[in-house]
Amino acid sequence: MEIKYRCDGYNGQSYRKYMSPYKCMASEMFEQENTDIPDTVNSLYCDGEDEFLEGLCEFIKNMDEEPSDEFVNTAIGKILEIVKEKTGKDVKFVLWLADEDSVRSYYADGVDFEEYPIMGFDITDAVVLSDLDVEGRLYGFETEPEPVEEITEKKLSNIPDFSTYMRIH
Asked: What pTM value is reported for the model?
C-alpha cells in the first residue's frame, strides 16, 4: 500500500467537495487557467504526442473568455477517455495529495490538527492526472477513496531526534 496525504485545513472544506473529476478539472483548467492536467496526461500516457491534449493546452493558454459548459464537459470527458484507454482506469473521483512532509510544509501551517487532521489515502490503484512535484499530484480513482490514516498531532520541527543528535556530536 502506498499512502499520500492531504489536509483540508488549507481551504477549510471537506475533501469530498473536490472529488468530482469534472468540478476539480474544470476549476484547474478553465478558472485557474492551468495546463498541467492535459500536459501531465499527455506526457505520462501519450508520450507527448496527443494532438487534442496539445491543442487544449494552447487553448487554455490563450483563453480570452470563459468557455461554454458544453466545451468544458466535452474536453474533460475526452481527457478521462484518454486516461481510460491508456491505463484501463475509469476515473470517477479525484483528490489532490502529496507526501506528508509536503502537506505539512505547504498546506498545514497553522492548522488545528484536531479539527483538520492530515489524512492518508491509499494510491495503489490510482492514476496521476497532474503532477506538481513536491506541491502534490492530482490522483484519479475508480472508487471513492476513504482515508486509511489520520494524523492529529503536530510534529515538532527543528528538533533532531536523539539518534541524529548523537551522530552529529
From this structure: 0.84
